[in-house]
Amino acid sequence: EVQLVQSGAEVKKPGESLKISCKAYGYSFTTYWIGWVRQMPGKGLELMGVIYPGDSDTRYSPSFRGQVTISADKSISTAFLQWSSLKASDTAMYYCARRASSREYFESLGQGTLVTVSS
Amino acid sequence: DIVLTQSPATLSLSPGERATLSCGASRDVSSSYLAWYQQKPGLAPRLLIYDASTRATGTPDRFTGSGSGTDFTLTISRLEPEDFAVYYCQQYVSSPITFGQGTRLEIK
Description:
heterodimer, A: mainly beta, 7-stranded mixed beta sheet, 11 strands, B: mainly beta, 3-stranded antiparallel beta sheet, 10 strands, globular
């Protein structure tokens, strides 16, 4: 069974850095693209970017390029999303999601990581 | 970017009724590269339909996706209590991948 298990909720101050994780179980981690999806409070879904863990090929949606860094460590079947300097507007739920093998929809999502940025 | 507009924003119906949710695209979504997701409160979205009309594993057959080009529909033939949730469409024909703003299906 495919499972994506995300790290726990975080509370941070503006300007702090953060790295959240998504560990994959039940499939070959290196052969499926993994994406990160943002959901701001009470809002819809936004794709931030995707990574192919097999070769770390990473693609960012234009709105998120330069704002976050997506990475993966295939030795531990884990993808990461990180910020170098958080803003209050980064407060949101973040989901990792496994893309289908031949199409760019998301077959399976993690449980979500709530990030709260507040002074 | 392809903008997806979902309507209505909120749909109020009773269990047993038929629900029709719409997703309109600002440009042609060729090859019907459109998916539908269901999100219940406090939970992650779940894939329901892909390629406009193919049910994902575990999707009940009361859910039907249809449409092509710029107009797509998700129909729930007979609402069950567990179907009341928010539904999102997503296009994957061109980058950036985009989602609609969602339709909230609430109990009347």
